[in-house]
Amino acid sequence: MSKEHYRRLVWDTLVRENAALPPYPVYGRIPNFINADKAASLLARMNEWKNARVIKVNPDSPQRWVRMNALMEGKVLIMPTPRIRDGFLILDCVDAVKASTIRGAFIHGRRLRSIDELLNHIKHVDLIVEGSVAVNAYGERLGKGEGYGELEFAILRELGLVDADVPIATTVHDLQVIDDRLPQDPYDVPIDIIATPTRVIRVHGRGYRPSGMIWHMLSNEKLMSIPLLQELMNRR
């Protein structure tokens, strides 16, 4: 089965079971879901979360609760701008409720648009939290199909800001956890922790993670639309 088959399966199931929340439609998105706050709370009980000082979290709606928890606990939050076109945002000691939204993050956060800005303001990312469309207990994850989460990981790996074994978590609805193996490409990044509103799944024996950018698999369209990638390539 293709990646798109499993994405469609999850989107259809969330809609059919009335488990999805706005923004609508859920198709083509990292879907927001009922009790996303409970999944974020379960994640916050994990030692990987408690021990992390700097956390990178995706900007999608269901992970707003994760971003809010991080800021309320005084952690440093790193958030990619949509499609990484404006680099990353760094947030620290701000209004957690307002800054946890995408609009609020742009208001309260500092933009890190260049490699030098990233290296000057981030020494190490201790935990990554991704949004997902589908995941399984093997740590295989599918996003919405645009590949930006993988690019963000690759950029941070290239710059030495994350280790190969940095803990990576996701928060999803229980309906997003698939029993099947999921199709994976060389640039896909397996995860370690799955937090749902009812349970936490620890992945054992997850697969290989890429060591950085796989340049020959990067489309010219993405390269030209993301200044950070252009700067990385020019520094090679």
UniProtKB/TrEMBL annotation:
InterPro entries tied to this protein: FTHF_cligase, FTHF_cligase-like_sf, NagB/RpiA_transferase-like
GO molecular function, one term: ligase activity
Alphabetical list of SUPFAM superfamilies matching this protein: NagB/RpiA/CoA transferase-like
Keyword list, A-Z: Ligase
Pfam families attached to this UniProt entry: 5-FTHF_cyc-lig (PF01812)
GO CC annotation terms, alphabetical: cytoplasm
UniProt name for this protein: 5-formyltetrahydrofolate cyclo-ligase
Organism: Candidatus Nitrosocaldus cavascurensis
